[in-house]
Protein 1
Amino acid sequence: LSSVEVNLSNIAVGQAIKVMWRGKPVFIRHRTEREIKEAEDVALNQLVDPETDDARVQKKEWLIVVGVCTHLGCIPMGTATGEPRGDFDGWYCPCHGSHYDSSGRIRKGPAPLNLHVPTYTFLTDTSVKIG
Ligand code: FES
């Protein structure tokens, strides 16, 4: 499938899901106020791959990223409830210890780049088309 439509209405604040798109996992996280603020408050000079949170989201409460570690391609943990989210409230890649923040940006560990943001379009407030 070149695109996939996802219903967001059952994803509670603080939860994330994984969907498959073009054979890759895509993480969709319904961010909390705190996660949004943490992502917005980071100074760009603290980032390995400097990007503002604003440049990475269309709606502040929804973060959508490709779930493939930019180091060597493992799938980071932090989507399912109870999985470790690393030191920055995002995702943690257990393969070699990369920590991503609540905007999916690399903050610590060997990965060189932020988690990739796929092309997506909101069809309604609770429905998004990825791809
Ligand atoms: Fe993720 Fe190496 S593949 S840290």
Protein 2
Amino acid sequence: MGFLQGKRALITGIASQRSIATGIAEAMHREGAELVLTYQNEKLKSRVEDAAAEYGAKLVLPLDVADDGQINECFAQLGQHWDGLDILVHCIAFAPREAIEGDFLDGITRENYHIAHDISAYSLAALGKAARPLMKGRNGAILTLSYLGAERALANYNTMGVAKASLEATVRYMAMSVGPEGTRVNAISAGPIRTLAASGVANFRKMLTAFEAVAPLRRAITIEDVGNTAAFLCSDLARGITGEITYVDSGYNIMG
Ligand code: 0WD
């Protein structure tokens, strides 16, 4: 029997087979969780439906986190499908291209800053707030994905780094908010993985090569690595862990 047997999980952020959310769906399904998946737009719908078929998810819902109406509708529909939710996985980030390349100040505008924070950080709080009534009192877990650029100034990551710092602080404040109801909130700070989102970051390939040379484990991270840690963090095995940022990065962050 898997260690997520009987758990119900909503997983956002599947955009391709390479998405980190795909690795998380795979691991959670393997450990016995029932899944519902969301897709951002019509273009991604059929891919997410394929993933749903693979992981036995009986419901697939549209969810663009820029739209409050869609957030409300998503949880209304989820509430009709399930009478409670145990796991919420947030695998969503976006920043306009010019805000994630070159000189930080050259690429930043009020609009870019706003979009990056709205989609990449505020959305975690928005989903957590909408999910709260369904998650209350079930020893549930919320999980999001961050990156080292939240705490170090890394070339090109720029505005997304600022948004990830906000996301990590949001994890801590949410943990304080829903902890008394038995819900935990954590983040995984993943090493670089070649996904659609990563291809938007300038010089990603060069960064990956440098990462493999320096990281203690001398290898890149896979979506399976992140998926397995996500499954653990959202399970009762991790019931003492909340408000934490867990590094799944071959140890890269410990290096000077
Ligand atoms: O190296 C990496 N790939 C790392 C990614 C290292 C550390 C962290 N992360 C984070 C990302 O910042 C993100 O928060 O992991 C999370 C998942 O990213 P991913 O798996 O690397 O990327 P991808 O497969 O592209 O999924 C991200 C998805 C979007 O895909 P695209 O590429 O089409 O933008 O986030 C979703 C979308 O499906 N997304 C949204 N979903 C709902 N509403 C929205 C939105 N407005 N915007 C983006």
